[in-house]
């Protein structure tokens, strides 16, 4: 059977009576099937826009309004309002996407992701702090499309969510994006400090000096010893000593507080030293490893011109209270100081490591930096780090941490508000769709804004600022009382050991060094300021109470 004409697109033969599209000048034929299929490719109805989108006649190089990046190729545009201009790859992205089978488990997500053409009011609010969970970069343009999880706060750029093995690796190799590929060899850094520390029993001093305890047991076996920091003999408390049964280690769950006078960190396990004198004026406790601190430090990065000398307290500061010149926290523990320059650092900052790693920025070395061309914000507390301040920094990625944030926030903490350990989180919790409220201060917070502690079983969340004061002190501390410019989330008295009794010339009774309560009222000195949340000296026999600063004056 013969055919009267053939489709010049697909080559199919047709009889004379079959309908077709024909060019009257050159007799170019297209059958209805090819014509309809072609129309479907040049005109689409997209869920992101109320009008039909028409394919641009020729390939162009232009920025896509969906992903915000420049593409070369076919684009679709609204003929009515000229917006949006979508690259064909973005125009036909799947509405729902599963990324459980990615090349790296860090970027897998349990739930399917939904293509979102714009931010909802709730997303728009949280997007102020949101970062892409694949590349960790921000969403700079709020009108661009994203992939998001409808069940929890998981957001990803279009290209990050759709990348697979080869494209994914090519993205990582581009400048500033190599966040998952380890950029150092483990053998080159055998003593590298890996942060955060696992729990509250570990700190930098223990990490550095506990090895000496294992290699040198003679000093540890001494039942009594003297120390330059205390006028009375110290007795070793361990499992072999009778006194051990009557002393309890620091335990926030049982509201037992035992703080080391040296590093001002909790004494949470044996062995440790305590004063043989039961007088409450002493209240002296010392970690085993804090008895091994060296007598001097040379070439400290913050003050290399002079040797820093160990002192149990700053001689030119009343009650030994000083401000650390590295972390800017107030401290009354052991100190390394240059008396000539009045340069003082607490014992943890005295041994601040040159390089660390941190789970907030895995697989990249963070180097200790004292000066940089520009400032930045700490990833954990989001507060500004001045360009002349200490920080741990990844130069490749522009990632910064306050030293105090990195060293003080442990991976898990125990808290008397929750029977389970709380874990430090850097991103929203999976399967947690609702809003986040701190269990202590009851204020709403955004999990994209810095880090937070969370109990998966009880669904409890806490600001680090709120968890640490309860852990160390009795009062939740309002955020405006925290030390701005160093760490918003860490309490300014985290390096202060309260307790002990003192005598001053202006009052006949002994005064106790405590943190002020709202019920303490106003200062008994002429300043007349409130005493709540401040360091104060308080008389337990009368209503006299005075600011620490007023005593110093």
Jot down its keywords:
41 strands; 10 helices; 13% helix; alpha+beta; 7 domains; four-stranded antiparallel β-sheet; elongated; five-stranded mixed β-sheet; Wheat Germ Agglutinin (Isolectin 2), domain 1; 553 residues
Shape: elongated
Multimeric status of the protein? single chain
How many alpha or pi helices? 10
Determine Rg (CA atoms, Å): 32 Å
Protein name: DC1, C1-like, Zinc finger, RING/FYVE/PHD-type
Keywords: Metal-binding, Repeat, Zinc
InterPro entries: C1-like_sf (IPR046349), DC1 (IPR004146), PKC_DAG/PE (IPR002219), Vacuole_Formation_Reg (IPR053192), Znf_C2H2_type (IPR013087)
GO molecular function, one term: metal ion binding
Task: Describe it.
The chain has 553 residues and is α+β, with helices and mostly antiparallel strands. It folds into seven domains: 5-91, no CATH class; 96-172, Wheat Germ Agglutinin (Isolectin 2), domain 1 (2-Layer Sandwich), CATH 3.30.60; 195-292, no CATH class; 296-350, no CATH class; 355-406, Wheat Germ Agglutinin (Isolectin 2), domain 1 (2-Layer Sandwich), CATH 3.30.60; 409-481, Wheat Germ Agglutinin (Isolectin 2), domain 1, CATH 3.30.60; 501-552, no CATH class. The protein has ten helices and 41 strands. The protein has a five-stranded mixed β-sheet. It is elongated and about 120 Å long. It starts with a strand and ends with a helix.
